[in-house]
Design goal:
The complex is a heterodimer of chains A (531) and B (337).
Chain A: H1 2-33, E1 42-47, H2 62-71, E2 76-77, E3 87-88, E4 91-96, E5 102-107, H3 121-134, E6 145-151, E7 154-159, H4 166-169, H5 180-185, H6 194-197, H7 201-204, E8 214-218, E9 224-229, E10 242-247, H8 250-259, E11 264-265, H9 270-274, E12 280-286, E13 290-295, H10 308-317, H11 320-327, E14 332-333, H12 356-365, E15 370-377, E16 381-382, E17 385-386, H13 388-400, E18 403-410, H14 412-421, E19 426-431, H15 449-453, H16 462-473, H17 477-494, E20 497-502, E21 504-510
Parallel strand pairs in A: 1-10, 1-11, 15-18, 15-19
Antiparallel strand pairs in A: 2-3, 4-5, 5-7, 6-7, 8-9, 9-10, 11-21, 12-21, 13-19, 13-20, 14-20, 16-17
Helix pairs in contact in A: 10-12, 11-13, 16-17
Chain B: H1 2-28, H2 34-38, H3 41-44, H4 47-57, H5 63-75, H6 89-124, H7 129-143, H8 146-160, H9 184-190, H10 194-231, H11 234-241, H12 246-283, H13 289-298, H14 302-330, H15 332-336
Classes of the chains: A alpha+beta (531), B mainly alpha (337).
């Protein structure tokens, strides 16, 4: 027993010494920090991670898009925050046939992957087919599309139906071009059964196989991911040689940007930004994210919300400007479902103004005593905004016109399920564009993905569907614009989807880095920072 | 002694199996579909993709079958793959476990030395001004919410004074030392990289202090009470009467007697630290089990949730086992009871 006691005493002593050592270490360390002049070479970006994979064919998340846009070139791209016109990238030029069913891309000369292999049209075909056949989150981008390579420098994308969105779709980091030989060597395949047989993800999470301005140095979905400049890059070299993306909550980002541990923070809300000192640069613009709610049009889900009188009551019962106030500085009211920076977005002249009397009359026609349920995710926030306050405000505004809204918050995992199953009477959600083109918003029309969830099935609004069909095959942008506008005006009239606002997106950077704009397509264009 | 340890080990093993069953069933009946939760808006609308995902995740089998497959995997050391990291859960636990352990052990160390030490001082100076100040201090430690303390500590010491970094285990982009124990402090020393060691310690200090706060308060109060109790015993008075110096009375007799109840507190407090790490790790962006569990829960990452639950249960059970054994060593009466 005596030995044991001595052991314990020794352990305590060792512990005390270790603690004393640790305490001494603190000031010593601040000294070791001083001579590190090299650190300015690294750019440190704080972001709350939604990072799953570094395999482009499997990636479809915001953080993944930021990383992979820097690592993989796509056929076309967008630059300088301008989401209206696709620009050449791997394809130096392209043409389209008259009915927008065939796009021909010419592959730029002299592009090599980071390992020195030349990039050819075969790599493009392989990459796009792999995305299609892997059946991941981004596979729908290739719906109805097929790709072929008549020669080494030409790629042809054919579409089953007219599709004017193809140039915008091929800018997606999901459709980034991979080194087909290298990926195949490491388990990849673009065959029809790729969903079962492709095993290249592990390799691509460790080694990048692209031709972009950066390559992966290390990839971790939970802590930090490090990029280094690609010496083989064919375009203008990026300013920063090394970029560290760190996973941090908004609170940690605030601390980091104040203490200078991070150069850029991406998830600060307007309240947090307001409290920052003067040595940071804040860039605020509208995010293309769209907050909206819907009134289920399926009478089996709700007799009330499927009634046109109820839609009218809501349309005139909501005070959109009061919602916008809640969304904070920099947010913008949504007059239609298409975001303000896209072709065919509606302007203030299409605004519906609140008319309490008209709304009350509509409620009276419903027979009064109207009670509905509004579901939303309570544990989820976007651009620093959570759904709760908006749901509460909707309830308060509708109470004034005689509609009782019972709030039904739930964890996103459960609310998402009932939203997707189309069983929500009223739902409050948001939509991030899949690709920067107004065509993506046809999902909100009758028979579209979101339309279906709101009980708005194909055939329910022939007039709107006719406009949707027309815009899908119209290849002249000038003619497309009024069609998109008509689509939205008619949708607003029917009132199944109620667009609310586009939140502000802010990028906070230290004065050392300077101005870093928010990119409406890629959130952050890493290679463009400092240019 | 061997029988005593064997009995405790047997009970511990039963507890582990029970925990696995409960964790697995509870997670399986959680609302929400883990397969569609993984999918984006457009993909979730495609039944083929959803079906492929369910198959890939093994969710297309009956629950009992999933459980036996899971148990089978467990025996081979396979806890399934995490959805969020795409790595095997076991790999994740090995990766994030040491980070939490380093943090929790450092906090415990701080608590034992500071809390224990101050508790002894308070007892020896019972009912003086020093004692009153220390008691107020310990009350503060126990009652201040840990997240509040964390926020104050980071904003003062990390943001304003910039004495300590506010997040991570090392500076951004710094390459961790070659992995031996997973403790960056130890591994950096083993690698002979002194600057990296100081950096690791620098990152460790603030979260460890924050995490230790409630335990410091608790230990201080407990040690004080325990020492006071022993001081009132006959054998201490006898020792004093024999003319032993106060120092040898305290270190030779008092502490030995006061140790038993204090060990229990350290044991239970260490286990409850694990709950505290979820908060502290979130605030300090500490890549440990706490952050991992938090993300797993919010993304319905089933294998990761069950993995963490089993891991934490094992630590709880292990700590209790060690406490019991230490008890038996210090106080033979317990062993025979």
């Amino acid at each position: 027993m005596k030995t044991s006691r001595r052991l314990l005493t020794t352990a305590t002593l060792v512990a005390a010494t270790a603690l004393a050592l640790a305490a001494c270490a603190a000031p010593a360390d601040t000294d070791t920090d001083q001579p590190e002049g090299e650190q300015t070479e690294s750019l440190v970006i704080d972001k709350s991670f939604d990072l799953v994979t570094a395999d482009p064919a499997r990636m479809f998340e915001t953080t993944g898009g930021i990383v992979l846009h820097a690592v993989y070139d796509s056929l076309l791209t967008f630059a300088d925050g301008d989401a209206t016109e696709p620009l050449p990238s791997v394809a130096s030029e392209w043409t389209v046939n008259d009915d927008a069913t065939e796009y021909t891309f010419t592959i730029r000369d002299g592009i090599t992957f980071s390992d020195g292999t030349p990039l050819t049209s075969a790599d493009v075909v392989y990459s796009l087919n792999r995305v299609k056949n892997i059946q991941g989150n981004g596979s729908f981008l290739m719906n109805g599309l097929s790709v072929s390579a008549p020669d080494e420098t030409t790629v042809v994308i054919s579409s089953e139906t007219s599709n004017t969105a193809v140039p915008a779709i091929v800018t997606s980091p999901t459709l980034g071009i991979v080194n087909s030989a290298l990926v195949t060597e490491n388990g990849g395949t673009d065959a029809d059964d790729a969903a079962e047989t492709d095993t290249a993800e592990e390799f691509l999470n460790a080694t990048s196989a692209g031709s972009g301005p950066y390559v992966l140095e290390s990839f971790d979905t939970t802590t930090e991911t490090v990029l280094v400049a690609n010496p083989e890059y064919w375009g203008e070299a990026p300013v920063y040689d090394r970029v560290v993306l760190r996973n941090a909550t908004a609170e940690a980002q605030l601390m980091d940007i104040q203490s200078g541990t991070a150069d850029i923070a991406l998830d600060l809300g307007s309240d947090q930004i307001a409290g920052l000192g003067g040595d940071v640069v804040v860039n605020t613009s509208q995010s293309p994210t769209m907050f909206f709610f819907f009134l289920n049009a399926n009478p089996e889900v709700s007799e009330i919300t499927s009634s046109p009188d109820f839609r009218e009551a809501v349309r005139y019962g909501i005070d959109f400007d009061a919602m916008l106030e809640l969304a904070g500085e920099g947010a913008e009211r949504a007059y239609g479902i298409v975001p303000s920076s896209y072709l065919g977005a509606l302007g203030a002249d299409s605004a519906v103004e609140r008319d309490v009397e008209r709304a009350q009359e509509a409620v009276a026609r419903l027979g009064g005593d109207v009670t509905v349920e509004l579901e939303y995710a309570s544990d989820f926030s976007s651009n620093g905004l959570s759904m709760g306050p908006f749901a509460e405000r909707i309830a308060a505004q509708l109470a004034e016109v005689g509609i009782t809204v019972n709030l039904a918050p739930g964890p996103i995992a459960t609310t998402l399920e009932s939203y997707r199953a189309g069983t929500e009477e009223m739902g409050l959600w948001l939509w991030n564009p899949d690709y920067p083109d107004s065509a993506d918003y046809l999902a909100f029309g009758p028979g579209g993905i979101v339309g279906e969830r709101a009980g708005w099935t194909a055939g329910m609004a022939p007039e709107i569907e006719a406009v949707m069909d027309e815009v899908r095959s119209e290849i002249d942008p000038a003619a497309r614009e009024p069609l998109y506008q008509e689509f939205q005006e008619l949708s607003n009239e029917e009132g199944v989807i109620v667009p609310l606002f586009q939140p502000a997106a802010s990028v906070v950077s230290t004065s050392a880095v300077g101005d870093v704009p928010y990119d409406p397509v890629f959130s952050l264009d890493i290679a463009a920072i400092g240019r | 002694m061997a029988l005593f340890i064997a009995k405790r080990l047997g009970a511990a093993l039963l507890l582990v199996v029970g925990t696995i069953l409960v964790a697995f069933v509870l997670t399986a009946v959680l609302p929400g579909d883990a397969a569609t939760a993984r999918l984006g808006e457009q993909a979730a609308a495609n039944p083929e993709i959803v079906e492929a995902m369910r198959r890939q995740m093994g969710l297309d089998r009956p629950l009992y079958e999933q459980f036996f497959i899971y148990l089978g995997g467990l025996f081979r050391g396979d806890l399934g793959d995490s959805v969020q990291t795409t790595r095997p859960v076991l790999t994740d636990l090995m990766l994030f476990g040491p980070a939490s352990a380093e943090l929790a052990l450092s906090a415990t160390l701080i608590a034992v030395v500071v809390g224990g030490g101050l508790g002894i001082v308070a007892a020896l100076r019972a009912n003086t001004a020093i004692d009153n100040v220390l008691r107020a201090f310990s009350l503060g430690g126990v009652s201040i919410p840990i997240f509040w303390f964390a926020l104050i500590a980071t904003s003062v010491f990390a943001t304003r004074l910039q004495w300590f970094p506010s997040s991570g285990r090392l500076d951004a982009g710094e390459i961790p030392p070659p992995r031996v124990t997973g403790f960056y402090t130890i591994d950096s020393l083993l690698a002979g990289d002194l600057p990296l060691f100081f950096q690791a310690v620098d990152h460790l200090i603030l979260p460890a202090i924050v995490l230790s706060a409630p335990m410091v308060g608790l230990l201080m109060r407990f040690t004080r009470a325990s020492v006071l109790d022993v001081l009132g015993q006959e054998y201490i008075r006898a020792a004093e009467a024999k003319g032993l110096s106060p120092r040898s009375v305290v270190f030779g007799h008092v502490l030995r007697g006061a140790l038993v109840p204090v060990i229990t507190v350290v044991g239970t407090a260490f286990a409850s630290l694990l709950a505290g790490t979820v908060l502290v790790e979130q605030i300090f962006a500490w890549p440990g089990i706490g952050s991992y569990a938090y993300r797993a829960a919010s993304t319905l990452d089933l294998s990761a949730i069950v993995g963490v639950t089993i891991f934490v249960a094992l630590i709880y059970i292990f700590v209790n086992l060690i406490t019991d054994i230490l008890y038996g060593i210090i106080d033979p009466r317990i062993r025979r009871a």
